């Protein structure tokens, strides 16, 4: 049985990946979707072209991993694609966020880094030649970001983890792509804080376009997928401009 697995599938980028994967993998038998909001997953199921198996659970807690592990052991599927799309961010000064909720930054690390890694390691045994892993990173991974310090750091981990793992898995012909978008028009900002930066508003893009590009880049075996000229320029800039200069520009007084 050939399947795709998508985390964070109840909304945003995860939902969009679940909708588009069948256009790239015509012979999938099932899509397994994972998220906390069961009603959202059931709504998604009605829109997809292949059978859906729902795993309702929080990736910050063990039960959903146990349920998935049991299903994998019983079915022994061929995982053609794993999409790690679950994650969240919180903007603001690290100290202020700490005062608001002492646990939120640790949860961000746990979900964005540990859960993504745990899902990847759980699924690797069931991946074969030609399988793909897509990890949702961010353009925030390119450089440290004041007032987004923990989120940017978690996405730097995702980018580094993905690129390193991609090299390790080449002998098995399994390919890992880190997706590094800028601002995307999703529910992300309801949690992170409303988008106020003018430049970020101007570079806001549709999730469907980012996902389409990510799937195309995954097919091309690219390590990193960056959508849009603005983010490609940002990526290039962080490679040649010292981060100290960029950080100074980010924090300059208006």
TrEMBL record:
<protein>
    <submittedName>
        <fullName>SDR family NAD(P)-dependent oxidoreductase</fullName>
    </submittedName>
</protein>
<keyword id="KW-0521">NADP</keyword>
<dbReference type="InterPro" id="IPR036291">
    <property type="entry name" value="NAD(P)-bd_dom_sf"/>
</dbReference>
<dbReference type="Pfam" id="PF00106">
    <property type="entry name" value="adh_short"/>
</dbReference>
<dbReference type="InterPro" id="IPR002347">
    <property type="entry name" value="SDR_fam"/>
</dbReference>
<comment type="similarity">
    <text>Belongs to the short-chain dehydrogenases/reductases (SDR) family.</text>
</comment>
<keyword id="KW-0560">Oxidoreductase</keyword>
